[in-house]
Give the backbone structure.
Amino acid sequence: MRKRRKKLFLTILILVFIVILLFLLRRPAGVVNGDDIKWGTAFSKDFAEKMSLDWRETYLAILDDLKPKALRLPIYWDDIEPQAGVYKFDDYDWMVHQAKERNIELILVIGRKLPRWPECHVPGWAASLNLESQKTKLLKTLPEIVNRYKDLDNLYLWQVENEPFLPFGECQLAGGEFLDKEIELVRSLDPKHQILVTDSGEISIWLRAASRGDIFGTTVYRVIWNQYLGYFKYPLPPKFFWLKANLTRFFNPGKPIIVSELQGETWGQRMPYETPLEEQFKSMDLNQFNENIAYTKQIGFPEVYLWGAEWWYWLKVKHNQPEFWEAAKKLINSN
């Protein structure tokens, strides 16, 4: 009798597990066909300069040749506040104006931990301060940014911090409590626009990030370099992202999910501007680029922001290799 009960219990347990797994792997609400995805891209003034590009020329090429309908644009703290309390918005005013003239929607990324290495972009005058002092200073800076751009006709979203729970880069994490303060501050200054919060697609659970903000953004990376494994391709099917989306929406019903960053450039041991070209293609050649696009179409989240526009332009103008640029252009223009 005891053996029968044990078998019955195990059978029920297995059935429950299968039901839960099927629930998590079902097609999430909000998933679209690959042809219906809204494709955008991103631009980093800091990275363009590090790639020895004319950042204005690169930016205009992205706007006028790639012609994205939406652009993700980080506003780096160290760029706009070179001295404590002294703000320089000229470059960002110009970028915002150029996008506005072309009716391109902007996701403005603000905070301390923003896209591109070293992840934390802290002004030199604040770098020697402890973390708590940096937080205090940043809370005085955020209103300067939000109040300056909150009435833009083409402002789409605010993104507050970038992957704030991911321990990546030369960057001490500020924690969830501070992120909540930042979000609350941005909401109080601009209740009209929604807030995007992001996290890693492959190695994070999403729940902490997705419980904050109005929209959740995941990264999608396929081939990376790891100090223990070398070049490594994630062995994850597209439905892995469906599982995480369903789990996220179980705790956050109706939460919109987008791909805030799709790998479209190399990822190696060092930065691209420090790496021979043939080495760069080990993690990203044109076949891998196209495979990443196909993979993301299978996921089917309704918005996808490609990562790597500066790298494509660098290949085009510095190495006479326009293939990535043209492939991205064809995709983005298909919207």
Residues 11-19 have pLDDT under 50 and may be disordered. The beta strands are 38-42, 70-74, 105-110, 155-160, 194-199, 215-220, 223-226, 230-233, 257-263, 303-307. The two ends are 64 Å apart (CA to CA). The chain has one domain: 2-332.
